[in-house]
Amino acid sequence: MPFSIATWNINSVRLRMPIIERLLDEYAPDVLCLQETKVPDELFPEKAFRKIGYPYIAFHGQKGYHGVATVARRPIEVVERRRFCDIEDSRHLSVTVRAGGKTILVHNFYVPAGGDEPDPEINRKFRHKLDFVAEMNAIRAEHGEVSASVLVGDLNIAPLEHDVWSHKQLLNVVSHTPVETESFEAMRLAGGWVDLMRLNVPSEQKLYTWWSYRAQDWEASNRGRRLDHVWSSPNLVPDFAGYEILRAARGWDRPSDHVPVIARFDLD
User: Fold this and answer.
1) 156-211, pLDDT tens digit by residue?
2) Exposed/middle/buried for residue 135 (C-beta within 10 Å: 0-12, 13-18, 19+)
3) What is the mean pLDDT of residues 124-131?
4) Measured between alpha carbons, how far is 201 from 148 in angstroms, rounded to an integer?
5) Where in this chain does the entry annotate a coiled-coil region (predicted)?
6) Residue 124, φ and ψ in degrees, nearest 5
7) What is the pTM of this model?
């Protein structure tokens, strides 16, 4: 079986535990990275994860907002819970996991959404987002003969033209503005990261991982964006065995507005 890593902005881990259990039961990823867990560390539902076969658990949370967690079927070790922009808002967690003779450093990120107005002079949330992405330049795709890196999460930016339902209509909408997309791609390239979701997918093919709650019929309107990402260091590309966007999960009971993405590698 290939080694697999899933990422999912769950929009409250306690509220959506039933559909998390469904994902883990039906797809059984080796590692699951969750964002927007919205729970302080002392109330994280560890017992529920252990009961369904995920005894290795790390989290970085707070009450009511943000938060990330990584759970696994194989041992993980916490490396860092990094603070960005001098704000304690629980948006990063890195762990290591062993697979295929390699030690893989897995970064789990929840990038700020940025508010509604794409002007950093009048919107402090947008300023925070741009500053956060700038600080992500320090996160490099470290790799060696027996080591590699993966970066996943809700990065809240749809960088390419066909990562949104309408490039023209969203050019001035937060998540797809040029100032975001250009700094985002520059950061990815400078860090040596490979965008695995676009690796073997034509640039003109639409890719979405998020559909707004505001849509009366999200499936019919299909106004999606690719806000969730899977990157790796270059030395994992030969082992990359593809990925799956679980679009159907958007229609599960009491869903998140994001869906899981599962990346697979030919590593045991």
Assistant:
1) 999 999 999 999 999 999 999 999 999 999 999 999 999 999 998 988 999 999 99
2) middle
3) 98
4) 23
5) none
6) -65, -25
7) 0.98
Which two three-digit tokens encode residue 41?
């560390």
Question: Where would I find the beta strands (DSSP E) of the chain?
Answer: 3-9, 31-35, 56-60, 68-72, 76-80, 92-99, 102-110, 147-154, 194-195, 210-211, 224-225, 228-232, 240-245, 261-265
Burial of residue 72 (number of CB atoms within 10 Å: 0-12, 13-18, 19+): buried
Rounded Cα–Cα distance for residues 43 and 94 (Å): 20
Euclidean distance between CA atoms 71 and 246, whole angstroms: 19
Q: Which amino acid is at 158?
A: A
Return d(Cα 195, Cα 202) in angstroms, integer: 13
The token pair that represents 213 in the structure block? 């709650």
Handedness of CA 92, 127, 233, 140 (dihedral sign): negative
224 forms bridges with which residues in the sheet? 211
